[in-house]
Amino acid sequence: MGSIPKIVILGAGYGGILTAQRLQKELKHREAEVTLVNRHDYHYITTHLHMPAAGTDSIEHARVPISRLVDESKVAFIKSTVQAIKLEEKKVILDNGSLDYDYLVLGLGGEPETFGIPGMLENAMTIRSINSVRLIREHISYQLAMYKNDNNPARLTFVVGGAGFTGIEFVGELADRLPQLCREYDINPHDIKIINVEAAPTALPGFDPELVEYAMDVLKRKGVTFRIGVPIKECLPDGVVIGEGEKIPAGMVVWTGGIRGNHLIEAAGLEVMRGRIKADEYLRAPGHDHVYVIGDNSVFMNPEGRPYPPTAQIAMQQGDTCARNIAAAIRGQEPQKFKFSNKGTVASLGRGEAVAIVGRRKIKGWLAAQLKKIVDIRYLFIIGGIPLVLKKGRFF
């Protein structure tokens, strides 16, 4: 190790940004060199992407320039794509060079998990980035415009695979947006079909059953059709095949059914579970005490021995602990064990509707929708203070 340790953070998602910001505060001058690598020069708010994807909010509300979030006199930022991780050499290969490290933070984010469904990667869209959101947004309008030219009714059918949080939140926004677009394109809104397909026996798997029932009732009133307990068997260029061979012709298929870890982690030779590393209690990769894993790249077990869902709030908390533990390692101090503190869970259902659990309290309807806004505003405040809240926050 050199006289000044080199810390490299791969990825500027929730975990990566919080790691970088905490290191800014923790480290003294020249105590370490910190470098943040990200393929874009902005951080995007993944939990907000369903809104610009459907067209109910601006894309600009879902992203923040990294230059506004880190002090580049303390954290060097490199806009680049990671090509490979060389653990034995303690080196990261980028598309425009390479970096040596003494401490490495893996926060590269996840990739769609298609569970081997034929055609899903090739034919479905995913809500995973600003660029993918732009494509979905434009494709919705494209299908309506094409329908006015060829009268193909399949263009007015929108299939969403997966009824977890992302799928439910997206169909809620889509159900709000499509009637507006129908007026714009002179289309009867009753001709629109929004179909949410979920292989599990319930929507929002693992969520409170009472709130799941409420959420489904709200979305059904908005025009969403659910096919629960029915797997997608194949995704075609013009629709999906579900269940025992039923084909649903569709103008667009959006897949929200699963996320796995980044392929670069497995390629580096690290032991993975669905592309994720089972981190130790200090968020380190087993057998590699100088490699830390956070967010979608990590699997962290709850006290019952089951993995926590890879949510934004756990990634944020991991980022904070990760930074503290790296600082402790540099100083020869004892690390702290990561303990997840669940602040609650909120799923939006479109305009003015949501469901939430905070502690043991169940909240639904307008009050839960306001809670969702508070959660979003709180995150903006954490990463950017009041100026970012005023610039990006949604208050009404």
UniProtKB/TrEMBL annotation:
Keywords: FAD, Flavoprotein, Oxidoreductase. Gene3D superfamilies: 3.50.50.100. SUPFAM superfamilies: FAD/NAD(P)-binding domain. Belongs to the NADH dehydrogenase family. Its cofactor is FAD. Residues 6-319 form the FAD/NAD(P)-binding domain. Signal peptide: none annotated. It comes from Paenibacillus zeirhizosphaerae. This is NAD(P)/FAD-dependent oxidoreductase.
